[in-house]
Amino acid sequence: MTHVFAACDRPTVIYSNNNKLLYSNINSKEVNVMCPFDSESFPECLALSSEEELTIGTVDDIQKLHIQTFHLNEWARRIAHEPESHTLGVLTVSFTVDDTGEEVDQGFVRLFDDQTFEVLHSYRLDPFETPSSVVVCPFSGDSSSGSYFVVGTAYIHEDEAEPHQGRILVFAVTGIHGERKLQLVTEKEVKGAVYCLNAFNGKVLAGVNSKAQLYKWSETTDNEKELVSECGHYGHTLVLYMESRGDFIVVGDLMKSVSLLSYKQLDGTIEEIAKDLNSNWMSALGIVDDDTYIGSETDFNLFTVQRNSGAASDEERGRLETVGEFHLGEFVNRFRYGSLVMQNNSTSTQNPAAGPTDMVDVGEQAPIVPAAQSQSMLFGTVSGMIGVILPITKDQYSFLLRVQQALTQVVKGVGGFSHKDWRMFENRRSMAEARNFIDGDLVESFLDLPKPQMMKVVDKLNNDGMLDGTDQFTVEDLTLRIEELAQLH
After folding, report:
1. For a Cys-Cys bond, which of 59, 84, 298, 324 suits 304, CB 3.0-4.6 Å?
2. What is the pTM of this model?
3. What gap in Å lies between CA 467 and CA 457, rounded to an integer?
4. Can you list the positions of beta strands (E) in 83-202?
C-alpha cells in the first residue's frame, strides 16, 4: 500500500483503503521536510526536519486513537480533572508487604499535572481508609470562588459486612506550576462508605451506603469552612451512582435499578418521583436527556428507561418505563459526556433552523446527524474498551435498523452466531430482543466490505418493502451516509 506523508503543522499520513481516501494524524510536532531514510541501523525509517530538530523514526500502524501509557504501579480507582489548575486528581491504592508477611493496603489522593502527568503532590489517607469517589465541585457562598477536589472514602474492616465509617475530604489546589499542592480545606465524617459524589447546584451530593445525602457549604466569621448536611433520601440498598440535571437526581442502586429524585429547594427536601420496577444490578449510570436515562448492569447489558411525566395516573407517572435494551458483552463502569473527535458545526452536518425541541429531518439523501440538542456520550469498560453512544431521531433509527437487518443477511458472524441472538438483552431474570439500540460497529462494517457484498446489502435494502415510493439506494449513496455516521465519533 502506498502512503502519502503530508508535512505541515499537523503531520498526516494519507492512504487508500477499499477505494476510499483516508488519513491518520501523526503524534509529532511541526514537520517542514520529510524524506525516506533506510540504513542498516535504521531500516525503513523516515527523516523528519523542523526548524529546531532533525528526527529519525518510524510510523506505527495506522490507528484512530494514539495511546501513551504512564505507569502508576498502583491501583487507580477514580480520576477527576480540574481545568483551572491544569491538574488531575487520582485516587490510588498501593499494596505492600509488611515485616510479618501480611499485605497492607494504603490509600492516596495524588495530584498530577494534566499535560506531563508528573506527580505534583500526594495526600496519604488513614490506615484502613480506602478512597472510593472524587468530583470537582465549586460551592455556592464560597469566598474563594474556586473549584475543589471533593473525595469520598470508606474505612474497611474485615469484621464488618459493610463500611460503617467514611469521610468526605475537600481539597484546594494551591501554588503554581511545579509547586502545586493539595491543601485539605475541610473534612466531614459520615456513617458509611461514600460510594459516589456529584456536583449539584453549588452543593455536593453524596451516596453514603443506602442514603443519598446533600451537603452545602458553610463559612464562619473567622473563615472556617465546613460541609453541613441539608437533607437526604433513604430507601435504597446501596447508592452506587448518582447523576443530576437541574433539580433532578438520578440514582443507580446496587440491585434496585434506577430511581429519579427531585430536590425541593423551598422545603429543603429530596423526594422520589419515579423508579424502575425491574431488578437490575447496576454498574454505571448516565443521563441521555431530561426524561431518558441509560444504565448498564452486571450481566453486560445496556438499557434505557424513560419518565412518563404526562401520564394520567400517579402510578404511571411514578414508573420509569424500559424503552431500550441491548447486550453489549462488556462490563461498563462509567458513562461520561464527550467525544473522541473534534465536533463539526458546519451546515453540511447540522440543521441551523432546528430549535431546541425540533428533530432533524432525515430524507433519503440527507446526512446522518445526531438528534438536535443531544450530546454524545462515552463509556469505558473493565476490559479497557472505550465506546460512543449517540442519540438519534426516530427516522434515523428506522433507517439504520433497515441497514442493520440487511447487513445481517449478508455478513455472517464468526462461528455462525446470530447477531440477533447475541444482542438480546439477557440476565438471570429476563430475556428480551434488542430494541431502540443500533449496533454501530455492524453498520460501519459496510465500509470494509468488498464491492460485491456491498451491492448485495444495497439490494436487500432496496427490496425490504420500506422504500415508500422514494428512490432506490446505490452503493455510493449508502457509503456516503454511513461515512457521515463514522465521522461523528
Report:
1. 324
2. 0.83
3. 15
4. 87-97, 103-113, 119-124, 129-138, 147-155, 166-174, 181-190, 194-200
Distance CA 218, CA 165 (A): 23
pLDDT digits (tens, 9 = 90+) for 80-106: 999 999 999 999 999 998 888 888 899
In the numeric block, the cell 496519604 is attached to: 124
Which domains can be identified in the chain, with CATH numbers? 3-57 (no CATH), 75-337 (2.130.10.10), 377-486 (1.10.150.910)
Q: Identify the burial level of 401 via C-beta atoms within 10 angstroms of its C-beta, where 0-12 means exposed, 13-18 middle and 19 or more buried.
A: middle
Surface-to-core class of residue 182, CB atoms within 10 Å of its CB (0-12 exposed, 13-18 middle, 19+ buried): buried
Which residues, in sequence order, are bridge partners of residue 105? 95
| pLDDT exceeds 80 at position 349 | no
d(CA 259, CA 240): 12
**Strand (E) or helix (H) holding 270:** strand 269-275
- Give SS3 for 16: strand
C-alpha dihedral over 406, 411, 413, 417, to 10 degrees?
A: 50
Write the single-letter amino acid at 404: Q
Closest CA to 152 of 192, 120, 185: 192
Distance CA 87, CA 81 (A): 6
> CB 162: neighbour CB atoms within 10 A?
11
Query: Are the C-beta atoms of residues 90 and 112 closer than 8 Å to each other?
Result: yes
Grid cell, residue 84, equals 483551572
